[in-house]
Write a structure and sequence with these properties.
By secondary structure, this protein is an alpha/beta fold. It has a domain of 254 residues: Aldolase class I (TIM Barrel), CATH 3.20.20.70. α3 crosses α4, α4 packs antiparallel against α13 and α13 packs parallel to α14. The longest helix is centred in the middle third of the chain and has 18 residues. The chain binds iron/sulfur cluster. Its cofactor is [4Fe-4S] cluster. This is Thiamine biosynthesis protein ThiH. Keywords: 4Fe-4S, Iron, Iron-sulfur, Metal-binding, S-adenosyl-L-methionine.
Length: 372
């Protein structure tokens, strides 16, 4: 059965990189006239040459976003259920060899976390865990899903890659979306940063969205960890992935996340810094390439930057986040996966959204429609 791996290994990243870095102003101007659905146009918009066109890109991206999504910004909250992990990723505080206290929420603790985030108004939750097959594998999520689904209309998961039948079981229990970030599409860089555990298997991760789509899950989230390698090329390769998925699994919805590498316990420094202007360029380029695409921004970014990026193409943001299991009930930083930059409360984020004319959306999904 074909997967994105067949397409990916026919791409030549070095030649794509050459074309990306040799794009001219004329290429960018042509791309701005015809940006949607065209990978060549996206390449020009991600190129260094496009930095001189940030203003027209931003204006066009903001107009498309407003036309497609109105003033709505979806709010979601991550709920970390475990920091156990059997992988070694040198940019992550949960890495197996890091001497941090490990914790997996039991059902009582989970209920307490749910009660806190429900009281803050959330109806969309992202369950996050480290990758530990035996302790937080599919059976853990199958056990907790009924409890989680009883409180949230929209449930997304960011957990270890699974097989299609496992995703099918979770879909039946109410999982609406799966986030699976490739981290980097450069194979050598991937091997350098993933040195132990199942996550070393680049192809298994690369083909996970195929398995998610085949299981009939509604939404798939892609992402690269910006800073591990050249962000322009990684973004372009992610766009190839998105393009393949949209063409092959057209029933699914897609989102991307654009996390910049953040400090964490025992973590590394970015190889390639992505500036704020670069982040603007990337958001605008993806919005122009794909007007339907959901783009989410986490609390890794500073408040003023998050607020200013919103109109350009962001459709979903997290707020009041904790990146540790049990962190809503017992805030402490030593278990964090990474440092948070936007530490505003949920109320403060909502107020800032309204102040800028946005409509904070707690709920944009009604599970009952599917079963009626
Ligand atoms: S990035 Fe994920 S898989 Fe890697 S150490 Fe962190 S939690 Fe584990």
């Amino acid at each position: 059965m074909s997967t994105f791996a067949d397409t990916f290994f026919k791409l030549n990243p070095d030649s794509l990189s050459l074309r990306l870095y040799s794009a001219t102003a004329t290429d960018v101007e042509r791309a701005l006239r015809n940006p949607a659905g065209d990978l060549s146009s996206l390449m020009a918009l991600l190129s260094p040459a496009a930095m001189a066109y940030l203003e027209p890109m931003a204006q066009q991206a903001a107009a498309i976003t407003r036309q497609r999504f109105g003033a709505n910004v979806g709010l979601f909250v991550p709920l970390y259920v475990s920091n156990l992990c059997a992988n070694e990723c040198d940019y992550c505080g949960f890495s197996m060899s890091n001497k941090v206290k490990r914790k997996t929420l039991n059902q009582d603790e989970l209920i307490q976390e749910i009660a806190i985030i429900k009281a803050r108004g959330f109806d969309s939750v992202l369950l996050v865990s480290g990758e530990h097959e035996t302790k937080v594998g599919p059976s853990y999520f199958e056990a907790i899903m009924p409890m989680v689904k009883a409180h949230f209309n929209h449930v997304a998961i960011e957990i270890q890659p699974l097989e299609t039948p496992e995703y099918q079981r979770l879909a039946k229990l109410g999982v609406d979306a799966v986030m699976v970030y490739q981290e980097t599409y450069r194979t050598q860089t991937y091997a350098k940063h993933h040195t132990r555990g199942k996550k070393q298997d680049f192809i298994n991760r690369l083909t996970t969205p195929d398995r998610v789509a085949k299981a009939g899950i509604d939404k798939i989230g892609l992402g690269v960890l910006l800073g591990l390698d050249d962000w322009r090329l990684d973004a372009l390769l992610m766009a190839h992935h998105l393009d393949y998925l949209e063409k092959n699994y057209w029933r699914c919805r897609y989102s991307i996340s654009l996390p910049r590498l953040r400090p964490c316990t025992g973590g590394i420094k970015p190889k390639v810094e992505l500036s704020d202007a670069g982040l603007v360029q990337m958001i605008c380029a993806f919005r122009l390439f794909n007007p339907q695409l959901e783009i989410s921004l986490s609390t890794r970014e500073l408040p003023h930057l998050r607020d200013n990026l919103l109109p350009l193409g962001i459709t979903h943001i997290s707020a009041g986040s904790s990146t540790q299991p049990g962190g809503y009930q017992h805030p402490q930083t030593e278990l964090d996966q990474f440092e948070i930059s936007d530490e505003r409360s949920v109320d403060q984020v909502v107020l800032a959204l309204k102040h800028r004319g946005f409509n904070p959306l707690w709920k944009d999904w009604e599970g009952a429609w599917l079963t009626s």
